[in-house]
Amino acid sequence: MGKKGALPDAPAGGPAPEQFDMVFHVQLAHGSPTRQVRDFTNVKQLYESIAKAFGIPTTDILYCTLNTHKVDMTRLLGGQIGLDDFLFAHVKGEKELTKINKSGPALGLTISDNGAGYAFVKKIRDGSIMAASGVKVGDHIVSINGTDLTGTRHFEVARMLKEIPIGSEFAVDVYHPNVAGDAALAPRSAMGGSGNVSAGGGKKTLRMKKDGTAVVEEVDDALTQMVNKIDDMLEQFVGIRDSELSQSIYDLAKSNAEADLFAGALDEKLADFEFPDDFVLDVYELINA
After folding, report:
1. How many CA atoms, within 13 angstroms, populate the side-chain half-sphere of residue 179?
2. pLDDT over 90 for what percent of the chain?
3. What pLDDT, in 10s, does the model give residues 177-220?
4. Cβ–Cβ contacts within 10 Å for residue 44, how many?
5. What is the pTM of this model?
6. By three-state DSSP, how is residue 155 classified?
7. For 265-269, which contacts have Cβ atoms below 8 Å and span 24 or more sequence positions?
8. Smallest Cα–Cα separation from 139: which of 166, 157, 159?
9. Helix/strand/coil for 252
10. 3-class secondary-structure state, position 286
11. What are phi and psi of 33, to 5 degrees?
């Protein structure tokens, strides 16, 4: 079993990961030649493949965006990659320690994580405490008050921040993502591209599942929209976004015919998230309307 708070690991004796002979193209977001990656069935293996392709430590990779080199959280890699998507890997840049006064109950940020042990800032509300702090969207949260957060899930980081007493000062250590011009690599224009790549018109995606397998699926636009709505509700009620978690919640809601059974399944499978009752009921009504 992995760290407390992780989604369930693959069961003993489960199916062996399916092998895929497909190639994805990737660049480092701050500028690099194009490399190819293949033979991965989960996000950790993807990061390992990218690190090997560029000769950098796997621990330097913060997250990936699809079809843009910008720190665009709407293009963030989740558990699915379109077969025509171009990957951009964002890596550690400058490290900075920031002290913040929690002057009110809401800090105004949404936390996500990269699926490999790094939590980062997904969204900051304008005019909020965090908006004036110097912490930026895309920053990896390394520690809070000296507590190392490596391997900590995003909802646990959000909970830690929520539990900080109002009126107290706390310290946040972050890594800003490296951006174009920060490294002595070839400029992107010399690589024949601007850093924004149009996704192909393909209707298939590679879905990397939590049990260690991966499958190629037809894109289901209605399902994608439903999972996105659950993700929006997660942000509203819990202060996190996680497309894989939203997919798991959708699957549980569809497989339980009554609200009480759905609530029980969440308590059994995803108890660490401590979903509020209003969230559970709203999700059930959304999916089973």
Report:
1. 10
2. 37
3. 998 754 444 444 334 344 555 444 446 777 776 666 777 777 66
4. 16
5. 0.74
6. helix
7. 269/8
8. 157
9. helix
10. helix
11. -65, 165
